[in-house]
Amino acid sequence: MIMDEWIIPILMAAIGSISFGMFFGVISKKLVFSALGGALTWGVYLVAMHFNVSEPICYALAAASGTFFAEILARIVKTPVTVFIITSIIPLVPGGALYYTMLGLLQGNQEVFLTKGSYTLSAAGAMALGMFAATMLFKIILGFLTFSKSKACD
Amino acid sequence: MHTQNLNKIFTQILDLGEIMLRSGGEVYRVEDTIARLVKAYGASESHVFCIPSNIIVTITIDGVEITHSRRVVNVQTNLELLDRMNDLARKICRETPDAEEFARLIKEKSNVRRYNHIEKILIYAVISSSFAVFFGGSWLDAAASAVAGVVLYFAGMLARAIGGNIVFQDIFCAAISAFFAVIFTRLGFGHDADKIIIGNVMLLIPGVELVNGMRDFITGDIQAGTMHVAEALFLAIAIAVGAAGVLTLMGGAHV
Question: Reduced to 3 states, what is the DSSP secondary structure of residue B42?
Answer without folding.
Answer: coil
